[in-house]
UniProtKB/TrEMBL annotation:
Domain OMP85-like membrane spanning beta-barrel: 130-282
Organism: Hymenobacter coccineus
InterPro entries: Omp85-like_dom
Protein name: OMP85-like membrane spanning beta-barrel domain-containing protein
Superkingdom: Bacteria
């Protein structure tokens, strides 16, 4: 058995979007977390464990133009976790698998916020629309890389995020979009900008093909599908919807860090969206 303690804090500015994915607003998110885990190692590359996590989130609109929060929330999350990583490289792997599973219960929430649409107050933490009773919080990320030829790799990915018996808005939602995991509760999706969709439930599947132009330069094409907001008993700020998207990426594995330049498109944005990533994202637990 191995004990592990993880702490993290950050402040980010997050853009919000209209229904047709034009930029609509901007808010600042401050987030801090501390997590204690007890893990049982299952060989060199796998671990099964339990953990408890404290989370604090502060949401402050800078430019309010659609559904947004102004306030903060504290919560605790007890969870089971399984981790597996047999990939042959940190950046641009060509074989093996990465798996991340978390099954948790969120409880002891202490919220204080206003829910806004533009400058109109829609509700507070005391609104009958919302509930801060314990709810299930489940996450899955599975990535598989299969070598097809010396320079060609097949990419497969499945993601899921579910908040079970959850009647809240935004604060603990899953955020969908972007190609790199850089936000709390994020589900990546080729074709949407980061925070393109806020939802309490989402599943996504992706298939991709990477070809190495040289040992340091590659081109990757990805296609994916997403179905979100399908848990009917939850509070839903938008109807259930199926989204398709894809991206074409030029990747450079430089001496300092990986550099990606991408063009994305989806059936809801209906336009080409540029996306850039420099460095190795560490992601969230």
């Amino acid at each position: 058995m191995v004990g592990r303690f993880i702490a993290q804090a950050e402040q980010v500015s997050i853009t919000t979007y209209t229904a047709d994915f034009a930029k609509a607003g901007l808010y600042t998110q401050r987030y801090a977390t501390a997590s204690a885990q007890l893990m049982r190692l299952l060989g060199r590359n796998r671990a099964l464990g339990v953990g408890t996590r404290y989370e604090y989130g502060r949401f402050q609109p800078e430019i309010t133009a659609q559904l947004q929060l102004d306030g903060h929330i504290h919560l605790l999350n007890n969870y089971l976790t399984f981790e597996e990583n047999t990939l042959n490289a940190v950046s641009y792997p060509t074989r093996d698998r990465r798996t991340e599973v978390e099954l948790g219960v969120v409880y002891r929430q202490r919220p204080s916020f206003r829910l806004l649409s533009d400058t109109t107050l829609l509700g507070t933490e005391n609104s009958p629309l919302f509930s801060f009773q314990p709810y299930g919080h489940y996450k899955l990320n599975l990535e598989q890389f299969l070598p097809l030829a010396p320079r060609a790799t097949l990419l497969l990915q499945a993601q899921a995020g579910l908040n079970w018996r959850y009647r809240q808005a935004i604060a603990n939602d899953f955020v969908v979009g972007g190609l790199s995991t850089v936000l709390r509760n994020q589900i990546t999706f080729a074709g949407l900008p980061e925070t393109g969709v806020y939802t309490n439930s989402a599943v996504a599947a992706l298939v991709g093909y990477r070809y190495g132009l040289s040992p340091k330069v590659s081109v990757t094409a990805k296609a994916n599908a997403l179905y979100h907001s399908f848990l009917r008993e939850n509070f839903n700020s938008q109807p259930a919807k199926l989204i398709y998207g894809g991206t074409l990426t030029l990747g450079i594995n430089s001496l300092l860090c990986p550099i990606d330049a991408s063009l994305m498109y989806s059936n809801v944005s209906k336009r080409i969206i540029p996306y850039f990533n420099i460095g190795i994202p560490f992601g969230y637990r």
